[in-house]
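Hi support team,

I've been running sequence recovery on a batch of backbones for a student project. Most finish fine, but this one hangs at about 90% for roughly twenty minutes before it completes. I'm not sure whether the input is malformed or the queue is just slow. I've pasted the structure tokens below so you can try to reproduce it. Let me know if you need the job ID as well.

Thanks,
M.K.
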């Protein structure tokens, strides 16, 4: 079964860090484009990062570029989103998504989505 499963969310104080995980099954992330999105309450979903094996393209949202890092573990078939210096405005449900055709980050069509993991930043 093709699926993505996120984990690692939780309640964190401002200034803290989290590492979100996105584990894939049924397909190999090394040959797919993978992205992280987030959706805050009452707001539209927004892309925060992307990595593509197809053309090596990457993307990180400008507003989080100095705090968000995406990495990939091929052995575990898992992609991670490391978030440092968390702010209350980072509160959102975070989703990972994949384009199994391994398109560039600019052209990707995400057809596989995880269920999301909640990140709440509050003191």
């Amino acid at each position: 079964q093709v699926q993505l499963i996120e984990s690692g969310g939780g309640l964190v104080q401002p200034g803290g860090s989290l590492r979100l995980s996105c584990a894939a099954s049924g397909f190999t992330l090394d040959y797919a484009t993978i992205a992280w999105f987030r959706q805050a309450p009452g707001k539209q979903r927004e892309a925060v990062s992307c990595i593509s094996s197809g053309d090596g393209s990457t993307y990180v949202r400008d507003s989080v570029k100095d705090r968000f890092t995406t990495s990939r573990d091929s052995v575990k078939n898992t992609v991670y989103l490391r978030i440092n210096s968390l702010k209350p405005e980072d509160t959102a449900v975070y989703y990972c998504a994949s384009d199994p055709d391994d398109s560039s980050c600019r052209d990707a069509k995400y057809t596989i989505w995880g269920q999301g993991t909640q990140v709440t930043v509050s003191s």
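--
Follow-up from support: It reproduced on our side and the slowdown came from queue contention, not your input. The CA atoms of residues 38 and 94 lie 4 Å apart. No action needed from you.
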